[in-house]
Amino acid sequence: MKENVIILRYGELYLKGNNRAFFENVLIKNIKHSLKDFTFELKKISGRYVITGYNDYDYNMIIEKLKRVFGLVSMSPAFEFPTNIDDITLKCQELGKELTGTFRISTKRADKKFPIKSDDFSAKIGEIILNSNPNLKVDLHNPDTNIIIEIRENGQTYLLTKIIYAHGGMPVGTAGKGMLMLSGGIDSPVAGYMMAKRGLSLSAIHFHSFPYTSLQAKEKVFKLKEILEDFTGKIKLFVVPFTKIQEAIHINCYEEYIITIMRRIMLRIAERVAKKYNCGAIITGESLGQVASQTLESITVTNSVVKDLPVFRPLIGMDKSEIMQISNDLGTYETSILPYEDCCTVFLPKNPVIKPTIKKATLEEDKINLEYLIEEAINNLEVIE
Ligand code: ATP
Ligand code: MG
């Protein structure tokens, strides 16, 4: 017996009062976009969506896509049919014949017109199942299978046994747009994932130092963007040529401050590009104390160049192991660990400053033609749709 629909449950949208229609519309749009390669229909029932009319052979792929739609909390394949005691009984009986081990019945009677109370109905159906499959046992607390009978207000009954969890969060696009500073490392894709999960759609900016960094390093970033897009929808990627800036810093600035200056320039460029392309925030993968450039003092000195936008650092309080776990779950880890050098590893100082000051950083920056270099880099950025 194969289920004929997929029930989708969403979470926090409940909290959104008058804005709820807006959140729901975005969520529906995102669901449809994620399933654009499949035939299906989507309908709304009270508090849920139901996917129908899909091809059985697409089922697994559809589930994989839906798992990545933020805003969805869980889903269940289900049998949908018009509410009718005989049909419910028959279906449960058929289902019972396929089961082994222990089970329970949970009836949820949203349709109060249905004449039998939930618990009474569960007991009655449980008995019928036991009679038709005597190998089964009832276990109300920890059953192998929980057969859920949802009798809904729309006159339909849904019969289900599986709950598949999705990532939750808010629909992408309901919170505005953020500019993700995307390196080829482990952290920044996770940072992007976490902010998209709170409803931000993403653009991304990557600093590239060809020929010090290879084309493969750039392709790795394309690949990371692609994996993220499964969760976030389309990401516009800006690739900024960073070679001249790095050379200028390397030649002119005090070695210990190279990374600090580089970070400050990256952030300045990121903010300008973000504003030009309507992003309301910058996102980085920084985690407090992870490396010299992420001490409180370093973050203070780099953050101080950002004028207008908030900088979101969703990983700031996380351990590397926690970040790696998420990276694994979302599927970027294997790509992130490919050994292509990042522009931050080029001209790396032996002892990067751990407690920089804004004053010294500014003095170092006075040694290069900062404004000209920034303008030039922005003028030459490559936009990848
Ligand atoms: P990641 O794993 O994200 O590369 P990391 O642990 O290597 O992070 P850093 O190299 O110090 O840490 O970078 C801190 C943050 O700065 C990154 O998470 C990213 O948001 C941004 N960043 C670093 N290098 C680049 C780059 N080449 N292009 C764009 N953003 C970058
Ligand atoms: Mg890095």
Q: What share of residues is helical?
A: 25-40%
* Helix/sheet category: alpha/beta
Mass-distribution shape: elongated
Tell me the strand percentage band. Answer: 15-25%
Compute the CA-based radius of gyration: 27 Å
Mean pLDDT: 94
The total of beta strands comes to 15
CATH architectural label of the largest domain: 3-Layer(aba) Sandwich
Distance between the termini: 44 Å
Please give the count of helices: 13
Assign the CATH class of the largest domain. Answer: Alpha Beta
Give a verbal description of the structure.
- With 385 residues, the protein is of the alpha/beta class.
- The protein has two domains: 5-165, VC0802-like, CATH 3.30.2130.30; 177-384, 3-Layer(aba) Sandwich (Rossmann fold), CATH 3.40.50.
- The chain is built from 13 helices and 15 strands.
- It has helices spanning 20-34, 59-67, 85-97, 118-132, 187-197, 215-232, 243-252, 258-276, 296-303, 320-330, 333-336, 358-365, 370-379; strands spanning 5-10, 41-45, 48-52, 72-82, 102-109, 137-138, 145-151, 156-160, 164-165, 177-181, 201-208, 236-241, 281-283, 311-312, 382-384.
- The longest helix is centred in the last third of the chain and has 19 residues, at 258-276.
- It starts with a strand and ends with a strand.
- 39% of the residues are buried.
- The chain binds adenosine-5'-triphosphate (ATP) and magnesium ion (MG).
- Magnesium ion is lined by residues 183, 185, 342, 344.
- Residues 183, 185, 342, 344 line the site of magnesium ion.
